[in-house]
From TrEMBL:
Organism expressing this protein natively: Malacoplasma iowae 695
Entry's Gene Ontology molecular function annotations: 2',3'-cyclic-nucleotide 3'-phosphodiesterase activity
SUPFAM superfamilies cross-referenced by the UniProt entry: Metallo-dependent phosphatases
The protein, known as: TIGR00282 family metallophosphoesterase
InterPro entries in alphabetical order: Metallo-depent_PP-like, YmdB-like
Taxonomy, superkingdom: Bacteria
Amino acid sequence: MNILFIGDIFGEAGKKAVKAELEKIKIKYKIDFTIANAENTTLARGLNWNDYNELKSYGIDFFTMGNHTWHKEEILEILSSQKNIIRPANIIDSEEISKYGVGTKLVNVKNKKIRITNLLGSTVHFKERQTNPFINMNEILNKKDWDIHIVDFHSETTSEKNAFFLNFKNRVSAIFGTHTHVQTNDHKIYDNTAYITDVGMTGPMYGVIGAKPDTIITMFKGESDRFRLEEQKGLYQFCAVVLTIDDKTNKPIKLKNLIIYEK
């Protein structure tokens, strides 16, 4: 089985990239199931109905999210009504947003039970609304109801992602880091778990991790103390990984990284 995981889809350029590249990739790599992180799709923050339906029409089968999940009010209805999307699992129970959707789901693909889990790292600034992802992951592992288990770990730091991988290797099929928008060159399979620190971003090629550079550069130069997150326009990049699973053992046997630049 070949599973495609697409890195954070960012704005109009991200949707353009998916429309232009996804079908070709599915044919070339004989993809059976496509997952995408969509938390930055709508105006760089969140996901609305129009963009959800558009991405689905391009051939994405399942969606994960992140800390920007709740920036569009429509997401509450999407999470509550749609079976092919999850949000971070480790949201504090007392938070109102925890009542909408779930953070892990089991789907059936070609007679395989695939569990997909979404977790938010402790290093992501989220006003302490998330619980410890290590503890939450241990609770999810008690289910033991899958043939294949893929985790989208939406975390800020490479150290937290690496620690998470080394703690949960050999207990899940794959751990794919998201959130930082720059694909890392450390994709590997170790102790029966496929891993990459960050899958990268599917979005604007010449932004600062997707955003217009001007206000961000001004902040780094010390000329302002904050920036506006506005999506950059122009050429796209498409970042993803292709995970190959042995149909007999259900173990990962190959992980290939993809970066495609619009010409």
